[in-house]
Specification:
Blueprint (H helix, E strand, L loop, with lengths): L3 H12 L2 E3 L2 H8 L1 E7 L10 E7 L4 H11 L6 H9 L9 E7 L3 E6 L2 E6 L1 H7 L11 E7 L2 E9 L6 H10 L4 E5 L4 H11 L3 E3 L4 H14 L3 E6 L5 H6 L2 E5 L5 H6 L2 E3 L6 H16 L1
Parallel strand pairs: 2-9, 2-11, 9-10, 11-12, 12-13
Antiparallel strand pairs: 1-13, 3-8, 4-5, 5-6, 6-7, 7-8
Helix pairs in contact: 1-11, 2-11, 3-4
Bound molecules: adenosine-5'-diphosphate and magnesium ion.
The site of magnesium ion has 7 residues, from loops.
Main location: membrane
Keywords: ATP-binding, Cadmium, Cell membrane, Membrane, Metal-binding, Nucleotide-binding, Translocase, Transmembrane, Transmembrane helix
GO molecular function: ATP binding; ATP hydrolysis activity; metal ion binding; P-type cadmium transporter activity
Length: 285
């Protein structure tokens, strides 16, 4: 039978805004030693804003126009920021053959032209020209018919409690914290440093994230928790010893795949839940 203390632990977590899907996950949470985080929407708010526009061959407005049209159907938070930077309606533009490539960007035909909007990996993969730039922030390159049109810088901000969340985990004896992101090195490094995370890996595709998590699981120190919010995080959440999802802004797929859900998306609640889990296990064991 399940000891009553488990119910007390699950109830306590629930009052703190943390949904624990079973007593076994409370036990697993007490035993984790490594916490791996997704970046966008997990450690950052996941709400981007256009902070700079660098057109190369067309006017600034045209560059924003192209990006907004290609991103018309995307649910990615970067797409939303590009659409609101160019609120112009469907002004006679025909957008067809839209294809979104996870962790890279989108390409489509706009008025018969092939337009790619995304990161360096997307440009390389589609054989579109792009010029390197040293700006910090997330860089969205735009190419039309293989010709470089310029780039748009979008920026996201870290969540108010993100640094405190990492600090609290280290103070509790978590030996390793790590961030996995599809974003570029400059942005990843800046955020990892600001938050005091032990390690980070950047420019990862969704499949790379699963691979990295599996490598950490094989190291077999203690258990490995993964914290994420997106559709693409679902396979990683399922693979971890403890999958933790953001419940408010997180995708349904992530919430479904997770063992534990933070109802208010506050990463500080990971340490709160772990404290409850450890207390419960001290009583049960
Ligand atoms: P993260 O790993 O930070 O959660 P994603 O895997 O969703 O981010 O995306 C990784 C990178 O792919 C982004 O930083 C961006 O450069 C690019 N990207 C993904 N989707 C889009 C999109 N719809 N438009 C433009 N760029 C995109
Ligand atoms: Mg994310």
């Amino acid at each position: 039978s399940i000891p009553l203390s488990f119910f007390a632990g699950i109830g306590g977590a629930s009052r703190a805004g943390v949904l624990v899907k079973g007593s076994n996950f409370l036990e697993a949470l007490a035993d984790i030693d490594t916490v791996v985080f997704d970046k966008t929407g997990t450690l950052t708010k996941g709400v981007f804003e256009v902070t700079a526009v660098h057109p190369e061959t067309i006017p600034e407005k045209e560059l924003l126009h192209l990006a907004a049209h290609v991103e018309r159907f995307s649910t990615h938070p970067i797409a939303a920021s590009l659409r609101s930077a160019y609120p112009g309606e469907a002004d006679g533009c025909t957008v067809e053959d839209v294809e979104e490539i996870a962790g890279q960007g989108v390409h489509a035909r706009v008025n018969g032209h092939t337009v790619c909007v995304g990161n360096a990996k997307l440009m390389d993969g589609l054989g579109a020209a792009w010029h390197p730039c040293e700006k910090t922030g997330t860089i969205v390159h735009v190419a039309m018919d293989g010709v470089y049109m310029g780039h748009i810088v979008v920026s996201d901000v870290v969540k108010p409690h993100a640094a405190a969340a990492i600090e609290a985990l280290h103070a509790q004896g978590i030996h390793h914290t790590q961030m996995l992101t599809g974003d570029n090195r400059a942005t990843a490094q800046e955020i990892a440093q600001e938050l005091g995370i032990d390690a980070y890996e950047c420019e990862l595709l969704p499949a790379d994230k699963v691979e990295r998590l599996e490598a950490l699981l094989k190291e077999q120190r203690g258990g490995v928790a993964f914290v994420g919010d997106g559709i693409n995080d679902a396979p990683v959440l399922a693979r971890a010893d403890v999958g933790i999802a953001m419940g408010a802004m997180g995708s349904d797929a992530a919430i479904e795949a997770a063992d534990i859900v933070l109802m208010d998306d506050d990463p500080l609640k990971i340490s709160v839940a772990r404290r409850i889990a450890r207390k419960t296990m001290r009583i049960v064991r």
